[in-house]
Structures are given as C-alpha cells and as structure tokens.
Amino acid sequence: MLIKDIFTKYFSEKRDDIIFYNVYEERISFQELKKDVESIADCLSKTEAVHALDYVLLQIGDKKEFLSLLIALFYLEAIPVILPVCTGIAGLEQLQKIQSEHPGILILADEEGEKNLSSLSEGNLIPLNIRKIKPGMELDRGLRAKGMPDESLIMYSSGSTAEPKGTILTAENILSAIKIRNDYYEVSPSDKFMTWMSLEHIVGMIDFLFVPFYNGCSCIYSEISSFLANPKEWFDILEQYQVTITAAPNFAYKYMTDAIEQGEYWDLSSVRIMMNLGEPISRKIITDYLHCVSTFHIEGENLLCIYGLSETTSGVVINKAHCTKKLLESGRIQSKIDFDMEHFDHIKEDLICQGKAVSHTQIRIVNEEGKEIQEYCIGHIELKGDTVCKGYFCASNKKMLQDGWLSTGDIGLMAEGELYVIGRKKDVLFSYGRNIYLRDIEYTVSKYFHLRNVACGENIPGRGESYIYVFAESAEVNSEKLKTEIKHTVLKELGIKIQDVRLTDKLSNTKAGKISKAEILKNIMAIGVRLKKKEADRVKMQN
User: Fold this and answer.
1) Do 207 and 287 belong together in one domain?
2) In this structure, what CATH number is given to the domain that contains residue 87?
3) Are 358 and 64 in contact (CB under 8 A)?
4) Cβ neighbours of 312 (radius 10 Å)
5) Residue 385 contacts by C-beta under 8 Å, 6 or more apart in sequence?
6) For 76-135, where are the alpha helices, taking DSSP H only?
C-alpha cells in the first residue's frame, strides 16, 4: 500500500466536514478538499514543478493549505519535507542548511511562508507560491534533489531540546504506526479526532492526520496559539463536537488545572482517549489534573501516557492502565551508568509508568558500553521496531542505527516489563564533582512556585564550573524578590547555585507548544561567550 492510497480511499466515500477552529468554526467538505488537492496536484504535474521522488520542502502557515498541499504531494508520489514555517533567523539557517545538503530542493509556500522567507532572506530566497502556479506556466526544473523509492516523508523534530533533525520515514513506518494505533485505540469510523497540536509535529501528523484519514474519521483542528491564549477553549471544543480522541503534551494538563475555576463544568463523557505525549510526563501534574477534572467524566483510564519520538513515528510505549496507580519500588533501583542516584531520590515520586512496548517494538536499557542490563537498573533507553525511521535527512547522520537499535538519548529503566523515563542525558551538567540534572531544578521551581519554567546551562571547562540559568513565565517580570526566592529555594532544596533567573511573560515555544529549550540555549551560548571573554580579560589583567 502506498501513502497516496490512504487518501484515495478517504475520498472514495462520503465523509464528515473537516472543521478548522480558531475562535470561530470553518468547515471544509471532503468534496471541497478533494477538488483542491486534485487542482494543486494537476498544476504541479502539468508545469513539471514536481515529479515522483522529488524532495519538496513545505513552508505553509495555514493548516488548510498545508493539508491540501501535503495530500497533493502524496498523490504525485513526491517526498514532502516538513519544516515549520520560518519565523526567525534560526529557522532560516535551518532551511539554508537543508538547501546546502540537498542542492536543488524545491520549496513550496503559501502567502505566509513566502512573505516570511522573502523578508528574512532580504529577498534572496523566493519560494514557489502554490497559489501562483497555473497550468501552462513554464518552470525551470533544473537540478532537483530526489529521494529513494522507500522514502515517503521527512519530518523535522520540534527542536524543543536541540537543533531539529529530519527523520526519514518510510511507508512501512507510517503504515505500521497506523496499525498500532488502530489496535491500541480501537479506532472506528465513528471516532472524532481533535487536536490543537501542529500537523507539522509528529503527533499531529501521525495520530491526527494519517490515523483518522485512514479510518474515515471526523477531524477537528484548532491552533496552539488559541490554546495558549485560552486553554479552556480545548474543553469547549471537546464538549461541543463530542470528540472521542484528543491529545496534548504534559504542560497542557497543568495549564488546564490552573485555568479551571471552581464551579465550572464540561461534559466530557464522549472522550474515551486523552493522550499525554510529546515531552516528559509528571506524576504530580497528572494527579492534580485528574483530581481537577474528576466531575467532567474523565477517568484515569481515559488518560494514556505515551512515550515516543519523531524517530519512532510517534508513540511506541503506551500505558493503557490508570497511569498514576503504579508506584516504582525505588529500593531496588541501582545505576549502571554515570548517574547520580541523588537525582533519582529527588524525582522518584514524580516518575510515571510509561507502560509496555507496542507490538513489533522492543525496548532495552544499556550501559555505557552498549550492553543490555537487567531490570531496575538505570541506563540508556534504546528502541527497535517497524516504526523506527530509516535515518536522518543529512549525509553525515543517515546511519543512525546500530544493528537496528535506536539510541533515544533518554535515560530510564525497566521494571516488570514496563518503562520508566528519567530524563534526557543531554540535560546533565557536571560541576564541583557532581552531576547536575536540570529536570531537578525545573521540578523544584514548578513545585514551589507553580511556574512554567526551563533550566539551561553551560559548562565552562577553563574554570571547571557550570553556569545555570532558570527561565520562568510570570506576570511579575521585574520582581527581584521572586528571582531571589527561586535562587534560595533551589539552593536550599538541591544545593545548586543558580547564576541568574530570567522572568518573562512568555517563553519561546515550539510548534507543539513545548518550551523551545534549543532557542533558549542559543541565548545561553551568547551569554557564555560573554562570560568567557570576561574571564579572559580578567586573566589578562592579572598577568
């Protein structure tokens, strides 16, 4: 089965309208969508703008335009390259890097994408606007970047923790991921899927585009900006449209808990699956959330804790039980890697059982030498299975697997056949002879101050020190008192000195709504350069 067959089948029968909700409802019938898809595919084909296996990079800001163009490219058996619309220099640099590694790659944009690229590149980069391509136009194909027959889609990760990487997904990856969800979620054509997560994110793409279209389900698409501005709109939509399947990253559940006021009520009895995925999951946040929504007909069994990555075509470890009921027997835990057990002692009560691997997927925990270790031992998480991607979309990183095993970059352990994720190994700094885990700091700030926050830092090898910064969302952006209290609390609880606390009314977000640690790290690096220069000047003066 080809990817285009999913959409050919979808359009072969009468379907419900697709709903786009951004403050107001906008409906598109399946006939209108089909007509638009065929029109775009016809233009791209007749002008020879796109051939089979061409890499085509999308810069589409509008969800409706994105959906039409994406399906049209699958019709033409081209390979869409999904990169969030460039809104700043970082995005432009990422796009230019892709261009340099894949000369001749075609860039298709809508009005927003064209305007942004033209402005950011000062007119040096003008993409092809999909609405300005007309049959009969003569387009110079020139040299075009082309992929391999087994490649179907390139998905760039959200870049919440590092520079985004393009994962090469095959038809087998995508179809296997759909089958897993059909089995685990027991999807039927009567289901109604709703998300405010971006379709450019792996969760939006797999769980809320491919799965519902494959099964002929109803779709309601909202916007991350709408959720952040008014979190309760999510529940309004779930109730109004009798949604059965929805999802959000962990932070959204805290947003909802904080936003819901006493006496408010929504009938969410239609919701049978509410996924928590896309970032580390907090037991405390989920426990507080379930308590808050207990009168809305949302039970613990409705909330699925899911673990996965772009590299695994979304979630591959699912807990279908009540995710907060199972506690880890912490007395049996030991570490088989360079890991400070004090960190585990601090966060153990906030860890949640992620569940077991889905069918045709294996998990193993390995030590520093890549050897598999026993249960209840902390190590590096590796995954293997039908949904693990082919490689990365750059020449230097295509061979990313070792004997089929993907190193996730996460630290965790197995207990009774189930996975517990402790954190990212890249979120560790070494200072004064000890490992410092940034999640400990984030957890402490969240626990005592109830602020959405992120901890970042940089090692300064020349001095054997680490500079650690906390960025937090707060209405009190100029409160020196709050900054001091955060520093003192982290020092008291963890014995960690915070270099500075930066308060802002809004942290940088990825398209999925998660905090963009990569963007914040760029600011840290700039700070680090200034610190190193300051230190060099000081040494120079002493000499």
Assistant:
1) yes
2) 3.40.50.980
3) no
4) 25
5) 176, 312, 316, 357, 358, 360, 361, 362
6) 89-101, 111-120
Verify that 292 and 190 share a domain, yes or no.
yes
Strand pairing report for 24-28 and 55-59: unpaired
Q: Within this chain, do residues 379 and 272 fall inside the same structural domain, yes or no?
A: yes
Taking alpha carbons only, the member of 439, 505, 428 closest to residue 472 is 505
Same domain, 209 and 91: no
CB of 317 closer than 8 Å to CB of 308? yes
d(CA 312, CA 202): 9
184 and 43, same domain (yes or no)? no
Give 167-191 pLDDT, tens digit per residue.
999 999 999 999 999 999 999 999 9
CB atoms near residue 28 (< 10 Å) = 15
Global pTM value:
0.83
pLDDT one-digit tens code per residue, 106-130:
999 999 999 999 999 988 888 999 9
Q: Which residues contact 98 (CB under 8 A, 6 or more apart)?
A: 57, 81, 83, 105, 166, 393
Task: Tell me which H or E stretch contains 19.
Answer: strand 18-22
CB 281 within 8 A of CB 354: yes
Tell me the residue range of the domain where 251 lies: 173-336+346-424
With residues binned 3-state (H G I as helix, E B as strand, rest as coil), the percentages for the chain, rounded to 5, are 40, 25, 35
Burial class (CB in 10 A: 0-12, 13-18, 19+), 7: buried
